[in-house]
């Protein structure tokens, strides 16, 4: 530091001297002085890519992501042939929620420096963020081929393989990361999930318990344990309260803000309003945060204290504005429930102005239009044209849909080990398979995935073009599955009305139906077990019937926009109702 200061005294107008001083301040963690020196250097040499790049690194380390992004964009303008500059831009774009810009930047870096492992590692992360998991796997494998010792790449490859429905392949990757010295909490976290996906319930539970003991500050571990105990507690022969461990950890770590928020979110999802409210108010007594005000509003809504909730929503909105789409959606739900339909429409439009493909905002806006008698409801939801029930052609090894679905039901049955529905899902009275269904090495599952894709593409080919419509304007020549699972509904079970926030198009493929549903007269009054569309969730308190109900048929798939409210009518039968569901996004988007 003394040498750098001496150089600056000798040459105060030399940008390299100010740059050296800035780097010394960075090394000494004196960020304020470092920024001042960087700014002086850039005043003297505004087109110096090296200074600008290092300044961007400082801004990124300080969490000033938008400022860092602007700096890195300038660096790539000044040094378009620098792979490192494009990597820095790509990583900054990823951190600010811009996977499209990140992908462009990192593809450019890979062309400039194809032999650099760090470039392919970064590109794999961008492809994963963009939903192209197959391409992410290829990038990670390229990075490993170039530098096998990179433990973090093995971890990321394991995570992608699990998301691709190949958990058994993820486990050896985790072992490779362990051999290379990786000791972070991500390793047992991904490992416990992979074990759960392959049905090793006790091993998964043991690993996640060890994870929460070894890394008590690691929030995903506590969430994994809570979800595992909620869904699989009876199968694991434990009566432990699923939320006791995370609540206890939150009580022990009051300064761990992410853990407090995660615990509150879990309690709200389970509709434990009183417990959530107590935690929220404890946190609000310690710090002022508009997000806590918003969460308090949600808890009060759950408890039926609508007037108090409205005050909290309005207060949070004055501070948060349109920066948090999840909050705006919650506020819109409250306004619908409170009968303030014009205000609800305005809030939903505010969300869509910030995030035009927000599926829940479209669902809420369409509901407001329906309540207001606005015919745009039918333009948006188009219940006849945008909902289809399509016969799926069985794979080549089967002569008919019945034999195909019978074999598929037998394959799916051992995967349904849960004894309770997931906390955050619409399922009531049944189970859901863990992880990703499509991508598993089972040949029949792979053939089923291919059959579904063929059916979906046939349907897409029949859809009209409409560049103004939020569903039709995203129509593409192919799709990418972004989630796939099987649901087993038991007697009296159903799906509460809901939408799919991650998808563009969603589905329900009917594998097995109880006799009480299969043998119904399609023209009769009994709608037990049918899929229904257009009825908002019960918690909104709106007296609106479904707009369309469809009788399910074995071997057929229902396809519809992900933002369209859908659910099922309860049924009573000793046999289960088994489906496969999957969400899709346009593959060339």
Can you walk through the features of this model?
This protein has 589 residues and is an alpha+beta fold. The protein has a domain at 388-586: Sandwich (Jelly Rolls). Helices cover 56% and strands 10% of the residues. It is built from 26 helices and 9 strands. The protein has helices spanning 2-10, 15-27, 31-44, 49-61, 65-78, 83-95, 99-112, 117-129, 133-146, 151-163, 167-179, 186-197, 201-214, 219-232, 244-252, 257-269, 273-286, 290-302, 306-320, 325-337, 341-354, 359-371, 376-381, 401-412, 443-462, 515-518, and strands at residues 388-391, 427-432, 479-495, 505-512, 531-533, 548-550, 556-561, 566-568, 577-586. The strands form 2 sheets. A 6-stranded antiparallel beta sheet has the order 1-7-4-9-3-2. Helix 18 (290-302) packs antiparallel against helix 19 (306-320). It is globular. The model has no long low-confidence stretch (mean pLDDT 91).
Overview in brief:
By secondary structure, the chain is α+β, with helices and mostly antiparallel strands. It has helices spanning 2-10, 15-27, 31-44, 49-61, 65-78, 83-95, 99-112, 117-129, 133-146, 151-163, 167-179, 186-197, 201-214, 219-232, 244-252, 257-269, 273-286, 290-302, 306-320, 325-337, 341-354, 359-371, 376-381, 401-412, 443-462, 515-518; strands at residues 388-391, 427-432, 479-495, 505-512, 531-533, 548-550, 556-561, 566-568, 577-586.
